[in-house]
Predict the 3D structure of the following.
Amino acid sequence: MLNIETDADLSELNSFALAARAEFFVRVRSEAELVAACHWAEERKLPLLLLGGGSNLVLAAQVPGLVIQVDLRGWTVETTGEAQVSVTIGAGNNWHATVQRALDEGLFGLENLALIPGTVGAAPVQNIGAYGVEIGDLLESIRCFDREQRSWRELSKAQCQFGYRDSLFKRYPGRFLISWVRLRLSRNFSANFRYAALQQALQDQGVDTPSPQQLFDAVCQVRRAKLPDPKQLGNAGSFFKNPVVTREKYLQLAQAYPQMPAYSDPHGMKLAAGWLIEQAGLKGFTQGCVGVHRLQALVLVNYGGAQRQDIEALAAKVRSEVETKFGVCLEQEPIAYP
Ligand code: FAD
Ligand code: NAP
């Protein structure tokens, strides 16, 4: 039985803490409820938004149609090789709690993705990534209801078409309703700490070869030192993707800014959007009730009472100043809805 609410307050269900209300809202706890909610909206020709933790969304004040919060649980481990395991995890599980549980059970691979807010079901949508690891590297398959084909499907990693903070699911918003995610983890641990901030944190503790727990702790420590906690200061993490530019453009910029960080990428050179924003003089910049975070310029924050247009006006200023100074276009990462 669906418990559909009307005019529901979403301000505490999005990490930006934007004032937002849903025309209709329902929380679903099974695949049957998920499909029933979807049919309920379709019968009424209403738009539909799947909501996880609301940590990668920029919501309008009035969200039309039905918002479905996915609260499907479950955790099953299957041994598939000497050290390999497949872990099937319900879409509604909290992501960080999942990383913690895997660590506690001696299943490795997720340590670099600690402390990312949100749910398991949304993680493949954005192909969440941090410190050189992406969920796409570890994903075996996902189960979803395909609203176009009107059937449940199991999609392989290749079918998910993962890219940099991108996937099939971002390209077809609202079509695939993910109910569980299957990850391939290992009982053997291999540490990945090539990012400078992680190396530094481990070095400061005198650790040369980190254990899984030490790597997990270092990731949490580095993130806590730099990123605002959405419970205290509304934000949606990085507001812009790191731009990838051609080699020619990179060489031109590197000549003018020899200290500019850049990393080679399959499609060119990846620049650090946070560095560009900082160099444009906007780190810590405040505009009314919103601003650019004072410790991490890639994060826009809501000091209280902001609506989507406040964030959009600030984002437009940031984009315009970076484009004027560097000739580089910044692309928004969180999804604006509707
Ligand atoms: P939501 O914001 O609720 O939804 C995001 C999108 O996924 C929406 O389009 C929604 O419709 C869709 N969706 C949600 N659930 C489902 C489902 N079950 N089936 C189909 N579609 C669904 N991201 C990174 O990649 N790396 C980081 O290091 C990182 N750090 C962050 C730090 C902070 C402080 C914050 C606030 C955000 C950060 N993010 C990061 C962004 C965000 O945490 C991730 O994108 C996360 O995966 C979003 O999960 P969510 O459950 O909150 O999704
Ligand atoms: P950082 O370590 O200061 O690095 C700045 C940027 O340079 C990063 O965004 C990263 O790109 C890139 N980079 C750094 N070292 C690299 C290396 N060795 N190889 C390739 N690229 C490198 O970044 P940060 O802001 O503190 O974030 C740390 C990690 O958490 C990053 O991976 C970042 O993506 C992730 N994060 C994401 C969000 C989000 O909302 N999407 C929010 C917070 C943190 P990449 O982004 O490609 O890794």
